[in-house]
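Session log. Operator J.P. requested a structure for one protein chain; no other inputs attached. Running the standard single-chain path with token output.
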Amino acid sequence: MSSQGPLGKITLSKLQTLKNEQKKFAMVTVYDATFAHWASEAGIETLLVGDSLGMVLQGRDSTLAVTLDDMVYHVEMVARGNKGSWIIADMPFMTTNTPESTLENAARLMQAGAQMVKIEGGVWLAETITLLAERGVPVCAHLGLTPQSVHKLGGFKVQGRDEGAAEEIIQAAQELEDAGADMLLLECVPTQLAQRITQQASVPVVGIGAGPYTDAQVLVMHDLLGITVGRIPKFSKNYLTDGRSIPSAFEAYANEVRQGDFPTLEQGFE
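Structure written below.
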């Protein structure tokens, strides 16, 4: 069982309270016990075991090949190293196809140590989210750029730039919250769109490449530490500078998010 870190044990109700009090919180992807330990010790409130591991750990060009077994393995490691942060696990590609498989796959992630599952999609996820919520599984709905749909979207592109597409994302956010989602994640959408959704939503809204106005921010750990292979995203920042250690880099990131210093408007999209 995870011991408590400097913030005490983070719960869903604590995250909701932060939203209600307009206090920002931080999230970072982690994939093993050591980095989970240091991220939680640094006070990062939420840890995401992301299927991004397919790219940053496995060296693939997308997340599509990541399996449920991969995710369970990494969630177990993160849970062992965690010191009180809230753990979210991605449901990998094609693991929510039927009600039966959705429940079985979510159960495996929760039994491995996740406290919430994250699902990519749109309005069509409403029934799935209700199914999980009714059975006590907290859900984060991932909207905007959804990497599991990279081929359908035509690549890793900003979403919601025209009025029609923006309205679709706004509608999806509302319907998925109504269906029982406890958190929303917006990836690579215009700053103004993310701000509007954050203001309308009653649940916490996390952003990545969505500007500075969301309730929380998430970064891929490798981007945060400046060890990404290839191009570092515009919306990211290397915190492993100025002689910082990895723990102090995590702490600096969390502090800048809470203070509203990261991201800047320039790191978002118009």
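Operator note: The beta strands are 25-29, 46-49, 86-90, 116-120, 139-144, 183-187, 205-208, 216-219.
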